[in-house]
Design goal:
Layout: E1 3-6, E2 12-14, E3 49-52, H1 65-75, E4 80-83, H2 90-98, E5 103-106, H3 110-124, E6 129-132, H4 136-140, H5 142-150, E7 155-161, H6 177-181, E8 185-190, H7 197-210, E9 214-220, H8 221-225, H9 248-260, E10 264-268, H10 276-286, E11 290-292, E12 307-310, H11 317-325, E13 328-332, E14 347-352, E15 363-368, H12 371-381, H13 390-408, H14 418-428, E16 434-437, H15 441-449, E17 456-458, H16 469-479, E18 485-490, H17 491-497, H18 501-506, E19 511-517, H19 522-530, H20 545-551, E20 555-559, H21 562-574, E21 578-584
Parallel strand pairs: 4-5, 4-6, 6-7, 7-9, 8-9, 10-11, 10-13, 11-12, 13-14, 14-15, 16-17, 16-18, 18-19, 19-21, 20-21
Antiparallel strand pairs: 1-2, 1-3
The structure holds thiamine diphosphate (TPP) and magnesium ion (MG).
Magnesium ion (MG) binds at residues 440, 490-492, 518, 520-522.
Length: 591
């Protein structure tokens, strides 16, 4: 039994299975098909067909390259695949279909798939893969992959490439993917020879994990379908444990510095986000208030007596004063971005797992190590502090700040004031929920006024890209199906990603999308005001988001009055589908 390929459209006629659509029974040799028969796909006549001599995936006994790739990725724990299929990725997509432990989520735009993969890693520490076709599918990933790169999230990107016969400039849907992905990846390669499959695959996963970034593999269409010898289909590499322990000498210096400090302050960054318990014990032991960066918001619940809030543009003036008055600042996995504005002249103990990032500030003890390991080591040998002023210092910062935030949350103004929205959300969103936040005034108010009580929260930190919030929520619900998921977004940012609302409906991912609908690119309007430009090009003409949600098969409600907000959010939380709460709000920061 042979397989015949149409040279016009590449349809495969398999003698074993016949062709149901043109009534050719299984087992019919191609030569026995009447001459009047036409290709069911493009209507070419029989003379257009050529016998295929090799690589028929349906009769293969050995695994194909694609199947070996997916099997080994699953072995590495990579089970979630986000993307859009197409001609040059059919082999990979089929291998995902066949693997019981792999799951494909079909997105409507590759950018959302890449944002979701980035968010998935930020939320879980596990890797999700993006899968796209060569050319436009690959280029559509860019902003999502850059988000991962900037926030040091591990993501794998597996992209189809045109058949090797058509490689080179000028091929249909062919681009130089190695060159295109180079600036965004920590590893980047094309499998031009099936014997290279596992070597490239293993290196890709190792680099993505160890170097915290994006690894990209392109697989030409014809290679995807080739059978692979088991000798070349088995993984040899391993993912090392990359917990870095600090050296003893540096640790001793750090302990001495902490011991001689009378007003230490801890600043926890994203690098500390997996170690809330060690952080709390450490702060208690050395009697130091804890501040966090915006990205690490929620590492300790807001009401904790040692947590003093955020340092930076969404933080309180009291937090800044506290750092300026400290005789020692201990930074744990902090990126030193301009949004945090760590004072340069304070004495710093800087802990980071990336040696290149060490040495910020003017008077710094660099401690190379994983935050969890460093805290564990220090806690083994540091005695309890002789002072006990941290709780008082925290209260002095928090009390006036709380008063300000309460006063801002005016419950009568229409359009509804953003701080009031944050007040209501702080009250309603449960402590074990997942929150994905977008960029703009919506994110600014969340950072500044939302009170965390244990939730996991994810955002686009360094790239600060609009359109992250909603795919981030999709990733959250895929990762934690049993938890409630909330997206806090703007009318501008949501519109960039809203094509995938149907994806949340299709895959039954109930979530609540709170749109702060101010009919403006609100943050840009504020920036124009700060820089004394006249307001221009920020007004938004929006669709009816509630009708849109319903037309997608979800639910929605609009809220225009403050007194309606609480019940609307409670109602949304009780729905069994994705829901939009379209909150008509005030674009002005302060009135
Ligand atoms: C992809 C992208 N384009 C542009 C910007 C610049 N930018 C930052 S905030 C913002 C406005 C966001 O508007 P909206 O989503 O409505 O949120 P709002 O500020 O009104 O709450 C813009 C255009 C960006 N950060 N990301
Ligand atoms: Mg807006």
């Amino acid at each position: 039994m042979a397989v015949w390929k149409c040279s016009i459209c590449e349809y495969l006629y398999d003698e074993m299975s016949g062709d149901q659509s043109t009534n050719i029974p299984p087992g019919t040799p191609f030569s026995s098909i009447p001459d009047t028969w036409r290709c069911p796909i493009c209507h070419a006549d029989k003379t257009a067909f050529k016998r295929v001599l090799e690589n028929n995936p349906s009769t293969a006994i050995l695994p194909t390259v694609s199947e070996a790739i997916i099997k080994n990725l699953v072995h590495f724990g990579i089970t979630e695949y986000f993307g859009v299929p197409g001609t040059s990725s059919l082999g990979i997509i089929d291998a995902i279909r066949k693997n019981d432990n792999a799951r494909f989520t079909l997105f409507r735009h590759e950018e959302n798939a890449a944002m979701a993969a980035s968010a998935y890693n930020k939320l879980t520490g596990k890797i999700a893969a993006c899968v796209t076709i060569a050319g436009p599918g690959a280029t559509n990933l860019t902003t999502g992959l850059y988000d991962a790169k900037e926030d040091r999230a591990s993501v794998l990107s597996i992209n189809g490439q045109v058949e090797m016969q058509y490689a080179g400039p000028g091929g249909f849907q062919e681009i130089d993917q190695d060159a295109f992905f180079r600036p965004v990846t920590v590893f980047n390669n094309t499998i031009y020879d099936k014997k290279m499959t596992m070597k490239i695959l293993t290196m890709a996963v190792q680099h993505a994990v160890v170097r915290s970034g994006v690894a990209q593999i392109s697989v030409p269409n014809d290679i995807q379908k080739q059978e692979i010898d088991p000798e070349y289909a088995t993984v040899h590499g391993v993912i090392p444990n990359r917990m870095i322990r600090p050296d003893n000498e540096t640790l001793q210096k750090a302990i001495t510095l902490i011991h001689s400090s009378t007003s230490p302050v801890i600043l926890a960054g994203w690098g500390a986000h997996s170690y809330p318990y060690q952080l709390e014990t450490f702060a208690d032991r050395i009697d130091a208030p804890i501040l966090s960066t915006f990205r690490a918001k929620g590492i300790i619940p807001d009401e904790h007596p040692l947590y003093a809030g955020i340092l930076g543009t969404v933080g309180s003036p009291g937090a800044r004063t506290m750092v300026e008055q400290a005789d020692l600042l201990i930074t744990l996995g902090v990126g030193f971005s301009k949004m945090t504005r760590v004072p340069e002249h304070t004495r710093i103990i800087q802990v980071d797992y990336d040696p290149i990032r060490l040495g910020r500030g003017k008077d710094t003890l660099p401690v190379y190590g994983d935050v969890g390991e460093v805290l564990r080591e220090i806690l083994q040998s540091i005695p309890s502090s002789s002072h006990s002023s941290a709780r008082n210092r925290v209260e002095q910062v928090k009390k006036p700040w709380e008063k300000i935030r309460k006063a801002e949350a005016d419950d009568r103004s229409t359009p509804i004031r953003p701080p009031y929205i944050m007040e209501i959300l702080s009250k309603i969103i449960p402590s074990d929920a997942i929150i994905s936040v977008d960029v703009g005034e919506n994110g600014w108010w969340f950072g500044r006024n939302f009170r965390m009580k244990g939730q996991k929260f994810v955002m686009s930190g360094y790239l600060a890209t609009m359109g992250f919030g909603f795919p981030g929520a999709i990733a959250g619900k895929i990762a934690y199906p049993e938890k409630r998921v909330f997206c806090i977004t703007g009318d501008g940012g949501f519109a960039m990603a809203m094509g995938d609302f149907v994806t949340a409906v299709k895959y039954n991912l109930p979530m609540v999308v709170i749109i702060l609908n101010n009919h403006e690119l609100g943050m840009i309007q504020v920036e124009q005001q700060i820089e004394k430009y006249p307001n221009y090009a920020t007004a938004l003409h929006n669709p009816d988001f509630v009708l849109y949600a319903k037309s997608c098969g979800g639910e929605g409600t609009r809220v225009e009055k403050p007194e309606e907000l609480e019940s609307a959010v409670i109602w949304a939380t009780s729905q069994d589908c994705p829901v939009i709460v379209d909150v008509i709000t005030d674009p002005r920061r302060f009135v």
